[in-house]
Amino acid sequence: MDMVEKTQETTTREERKTRRRLERQEKQQAKQSSKSEGKIRIRLIPLWLRIIIVLLLIVGCVAVGLMVGYGVVGDGNPSDALKWSTWQHIIDLIKKP
């Protein structure tokens, strides 16, 4: 009698596991179908504008870094870091043997 009860108990456990797995699969399928049927997302800022903004931020950060490095660390005038003559002088120093 005990063997029959254990067999029935394991069967019910397996059935419960199977039911839970099927329920989870149905929920996942319902989520996926609702996502595909959902509303279309309209971006506030278009992708091309985001790229331009990021590039401008990079250029701005480089300029500020140059000015801080030249003005604070190098004891020079910070606005001189953005002048072409300063860079030409640095290039001449590097190229001269």
UniProtKB/TrEMBL annotation:
Pfam families: EpuA
InterPro entries noted in UniProt: RNApol_su_b/EpuA (IPR024596)
Disordered: annotated span: 1-37
Keywords from the named record: Membrane, Transmembrane, Transmembrane helix
Record-annotated membrane-spanning stretches: 47-73
Protein name: DNA-directed RNA polymerase subunit beta
Record organism: Bacillus carboniphilus
